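Before drawing any conclusions, I needed to go through one protein's amino acid sequence and its backbone structure tokens, quoted below without any editing.
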Amino acid sequence: MRQETRQEAGKAVYGLLAEFPNADSLCAAAKEARAHGYTHAEAYSPFPVGGLEEVLGTRRSWVAPAALVGGALGGAATYFLQWYAAVIDYPINVGGRPLHSWPSFIPATFELTILGAAVAAVLAMLIQNGLPKLYHPLFEVEEFELASRNRFFLCLPAHDPVFAPGPARELLEGLHPMLLREVPA
């Protein structure tokens, strides 16, 4: 007997969520999903799982390049501001020192380089994670709160190009999850 899914009944579905007991079974399930063409599969675990990013084909993070650019811009802007103030706008000859006395500019330049990098990294991380997001459809699945404690979850979202409710359910059932839930949108 064929089970009717919510999507087929006219109700939107976010995807299918499967719960696994350990990291190894999550990695195996992610490999199998990737082998079946799922490019947007999502994995959730209480700690970082080595090799899971490669299995899921996660794209490279742009937080580090953003931090580099933020630090360089912060440092360059600070150095330029000090140079402009001391050499061009308000030159003061103090004790015969040169107007462009670069060693005195280094402490503030260093501090604002670090500040610029930190601010850029935090902003890039928030943007890349899609935060602040106060709601996610997975929060509707009661067991999902265990993802931060001791369980491992794999979600096949409906927006994945190869997602079809029936074949996706069969794929996940074949991986023998502890739990298989349809996530409402």
About this structure: Residues 116 and 175 are 46 Å apart (CA to CA). The first helix runs from residue 23 to 35.
